[in-house]
Amino acid sequence: MENKEEKKEELLKKKKSLEAEKNSIAKYMGPHEHDEALEKEWGRINAELEKIEKEIQELENQ
What is the distance between the alpha carbons of residues 20 and 49, in angstroms, rounded to a whole number? Predict the structure, then answer.
């Protein structure tokens, strides 16, 4: 039980960090700016956030 809660807490911390990073990128990526490196990073962050959400859901459903 403890391990499950620790894992969830770790995932939530990582999620919060990634969301902050995503918000930071959003400030620099305007509607007319298409920086390829930022777009790749944005995609990576979104994919990782999706993965974290799935892991959290799995932990909650156990």
Answer: 12
Contacts of 37-42 spanning 24+ positions with Cβ under 8 A: none
- Is the backbone of residue 25 left (phi > 0), alpha (psi -120 to 50) or beta? alpha
Please give the average pLDDT of every successive group of 10 residues along the chain, which has 62 residues. Answer: 85 96 84 76 95 94 86
Distance CA 48, CA 57 (A): 14
Q: What is the pTM of this model?
A: 0.81
Spatial distance between the Cα atoms of 20 and 45, rounded to a whole number of angstroms: 10
